[in-house]
Amino acid sequence: MKRIIALITLLLYFFIFVPALTAAPETQTAAPPEISGEAAYLIDVQSGQTLYSKNGDQLMAPASTTKIMTGLLGIELGNPEDIVTASETMLDYNTVYGTRIYLEPGEQLSLEDMLYALLLNSANDAAVAIAEHISGNTAAFVSLMNQRAADLGLKNTTFKNPSGLNEEGHLITAHDLARIAQAAYANPVFRDYIKTKSHVIPRAKENVPIEMINENKLLWRDDTITGMKTGYTSVAQNCLVASASRDGRDVIGVILKSPGREIYTDMQALLDYGFEQFENTLYKGVGDSLGQLEIQGQPVNLLIDQALWITQKKDNTLPQPRINILPIDGELAEVAEGQVLTRLEVWEDEECLRVVPLAADRNIITEAAVEKKSYALFTGLGLMVSGVILYGAVQQRKHAERRRERAKLRQDRIQDPNRCQRR
C-alpha cells in the first residue's frame, strides 16, 4: 500500500500546479473600467476564474436578479408542460407588488409560460406562482434556493423570497451572484430563456399582459450578449447580470447598486474588458491524462472527461489557479476501464472552482479475480443449463394445463353461447 501511495505521489507531483503559460508577446493593455455601481464582478465561464472584482464580497440586496435562482430551480425541478395554478397569494399585495402580469387566483398557465414571465418580464407574481407550484409554498421553495446556493459552496447568500422584493436579510454578494449565474448558464434550457427577446403567452383574460419583453437592454443592442437578468428596488437600486459570448469564450458580469441607467454602459465596458484583455489556453482536453499510477507493474493513466481551460491576462498579471489531485482511497489491486479513481480540484485562492473526476484508461485484473470469474462463469453456465431443463418441465406442465382449460372453455361456450370470453 505504501509503495502504491508513494508511486502515485511521485507520478502526480508534476501536475499539482498549473505550469506557467508561455509569456505572451507584448500587447497593449488597458486598465479595468470605472464601474459606478457599489459592487461588480466578472468571471470567465470556461475556466471559472475571476477577471475583475469591486467589493465582490460585500453583502448587497440583489433585487430581481434573485429570479436567476428561481428560474433555475423551476427548470430543474419542474416540467415545462406542467400547469401552474395561481393561488390566493396573488391577492396579497405585499407579496406580489411591483412588476407583475396580474395573475388572478385560479388562473392557469404552463410552467414554460410562467418562466417566460419570470425571466423576461420579471413578474413577481409569476415568481410566487412558480415557487408554490414547485414546493407547495414560498417558504419551502426559499429553503431550496438557499440549499442550492450552499451546494454551490456559496457562504454569503441568504434568500428570503423568490422574487427579490425588499425584505430584511435578503442579501447576496456580487461574487455569489456570479457563481449562481454561472451554474444557471450551464443549463441549456435556462440559456434559451434568457436569450429570448420577446415571447407571447396565451391567456384567457383580456386587458392583461401577454407579450413578455426582455428587459435586458444589452440583449437588444449587442449580438454577442446571450442574456441574463435585470433588477431594481428602492433598496437595491439598479442591478444587472449579463452574459456574453465571443470567439468561443463566454463571460458573465455582475453590477449591483448602480445609481442609474449608466449600468448598461458600465456593463458593456466590463464585458469588453473581459474579452479584450484576457485569453484562454487549453490546459488539458477531453480524454487527456492528468497523471499515471502503477498497478501490478502496469501503468494506468488518469483521464479527464471535460476540458480544462486556463485564463490569463494578456500582460500575464492574472494569478493562476492551482490544481490539486486528491489521494486515492484504499489499496488498488485491480481497476476497470472508466472507473473513477480520484478527483481533480481547481482552486482560486480559497475557492474551489471545479471538481473533475479522473478515470482509469484500462482494465487491470488480478489472476485471482480471473480465476474467480472463470469459476463464476462455469457455475453460471451450470445454473443456466439446470434452469433451461427446469423451465422446459414447467412449460410442458403449463401447456398441458392450458389444453385442459381450452377444452373446458369450448364445452362452456356450447352450454352458454352468450358468456364472455375469459381473457
UniProtKB/TrEMBL annotation:
EC number(s) per UniProt?
3.4.16.4
Please provide the record's keywords in A-Z order.
Answer: Carboxypeptidase, Cell shape, Cell wall biogenesis/degradation, Hydrolase, Membrane, Peptidoglycan synthesis, Protease, Signal, Transmembrane, Transmembrane helix
Biased composition annotated in UniProt, kind: Basic and acidic residues: 402-416
Listed transmembrane segments = 375-394
Q: Which Gene3D superfamilies match?
A: DD-peptidase/beta-lactamase superfamily (3.40.710.10)
- InterPro entries per the UniProt record, alphabetical: Beta-lactam/transpept-like, Peptidase_S11, Peptidase_S11_N
Residue ranges for the region (Disordered) are 402-423
What is the similarity comment for this entry? Belongs to the peptidase S11 family.
Q: What is this protein identified as?
A: Serine-type D-Ala-D-Ala carboxypeptidase
Q: What is the lineage of its organism?
A: Bacteria, Bacillati, Bacillota, Clostridia, Eubacteriales
